[in-house]
């Protein structure tokens, strides 16, 4: 009812359905019925199931793809903390070479067919766990990370402009 009234009063709005966790068929039908894109988080995709919805080849156009969210570790921090088996899956799937993370996951996000790719600034800057934004279930140290002065520069802008053009996202 809420979504129906919202659409009647405001028209189409850029709303993303946070469809993470256990999602029932009714919830999926509601999301699709209103044309709301769902979330696909690449860091969630490497548990060993080749049909995991978070893996890039399982994404649909009706999804928004993230390397990670505000509740995840940075991609570099996540990668450095992986157990051996998961690390092997990630390395094989993404063809990771030394020093290519987080860009390997960023490229996977940009190459997804999802309608939008969201890359946290910490991943763009290649930062580790020290730049994590939030750790769910904790009360200390959250939401304190700030973009370092001078972190954004022309070289970074040119590189990400080229990546976005390469994957037809500009």
Mean pLDDT: 95
Secondary-structure content class: mainly alpha
Count of discrete alpha- or pi-helical segments spanning 4 or more residues: 7
Instruction: Report strand %.
Output: 5-15%
Helix content: 25-40%
Give your account of this protein's structure:
- With 170 residues, the chain is mostly helical.
- It is 36% helix and 6% strand.
- The chain has 7 helices and 3 strands; from the N terminus they run H-H-E-E-H-H-H-E-H-H.
- Strands 1-2-3 form a 3-stranded parallel β-sheet, with no helix packed on it.
- The longest helix has 13 residues.
- The radius of gyration is 17 Å and the shape is globular.
- 25% of the residues are buried.
- The model has no long low-confidence stretch (mean pLDDT 95).
Give descriptors for this structure.
about 170 residues, globular, 3-stranded parallel beta sheet, mainly alpha
What are the SSEs and their pairings?
Blueprint: H1 2-10, H2 25-33, E1 38-41, E2 63-66, H3 75-80, H4 84-94, H5 103-111, E3 116-118, H6 121-124, H7 154-166
Parallel strand pairs: 1-2, 2-3
Structure in a nutshell:
The chain has helices at 2-10, 25-33, 75-80, 84-94, 103-111, 121-124, 154-166, and strands at 38-41, 63-66, 116-118. With 170 residues, the protein is mainly alpha-helical.
């Amino acid at each position: 009812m809420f979504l129906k009234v919202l659409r009647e009063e405001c028209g189409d709005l850029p709303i993303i359905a946070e469809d993470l966790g256990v999602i029932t068929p009714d919830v999926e039908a509601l999301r699709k019925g209103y044309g709301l894109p769902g979330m696909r988080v690449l860091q969630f995709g490497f548990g060993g199931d080749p049909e995991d919805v978070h893996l890039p080849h399982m994404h649909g156009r009706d999804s928004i793809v993230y390397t990670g969210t505000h509740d995840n570790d940075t991609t570099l921090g996540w990668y450095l903390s992986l157990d051996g088996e998961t690390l092997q899956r990630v390395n094989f799937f993404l063809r990771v070479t030394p020093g290519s993370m987080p860009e390997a996951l960023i490229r996977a996000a940009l190459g997804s067919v999802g309608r939008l790719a969201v890359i946290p600034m910490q991943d763009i800057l290649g930062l580790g766990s020290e730049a994590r934004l939030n750790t769910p279930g904790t009360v200390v140290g959250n939401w304190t990370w700030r973009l370092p002065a001078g972190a954004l520069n022309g070289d970074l802008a040119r590189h990400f402009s080229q990546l976005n053009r390469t994957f037809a996202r500009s």
